[in-house]
Amino acid sequence: MKTEALTQDHNKEKVVVVLLHLKSKEKHDWSVEEERQEMEELVRASGGVVVESVICRVDKFSARNLIGEGKLAEIADLCQEKKADTVIFSYDLKGSQQRNVEDAVQLKTIDRTQLILDIFAKHARSKEGKMQVELAQLEYLLPRLVGKGIELSRLGGGIGTLGPGETKLEVDRRRISQRIATLKRNLKAVSESRSLKRKKRK
Predict the structure, then answer these.
(1) pLDDT over 90 (residue 176)
(2) Model-wide pTM > 0.85
(3) Cα–Cα distance, 26 to 163 (Å, whole number)
(4) Are 96 and 146 in contact (CB under 8 A)?
């Protein structure tokens, strides 16, 4: 039974979790251990397995990559050693930070919010639920696009890449904005339809 579980884990996406704590913040809402456990549960819910958790205690966040060049180099080496597929930060990354980390570790990099949205996407069953999740994903992605846009296909498959939209073509601001507008219209129509049915029942 244990061998079977190990085989299943071996086939899952291997994740290195990066937990961030500001030294200057006197009191954190959660302890490092509580945050580590929560991130491991989220990764498990998304279909991955945590192969290592790295705690980064920093004086202040780096505008370039959140954690600084030295720590990032350590994480890149660790990812190689653990044969990781993905790096997930416990703190939200800006678009430029995400790209800089990906360039350094040469692996797909996402943050906690993207991880949670991915879990919602996996479990959405109704048409309305799927539209709501896609809308949330696109609204999160839009401000993170810089210049000509981001090609989602470069991320490959796995955690954080489920939905939204097209994965084979470059997704730019204009097309994402159009899709957001369409989703909002469709969700409004669903809501109005439900309201009308409710009135008829009454």
Answers:
(1) no
(2) no
(3) 38
(4) yes
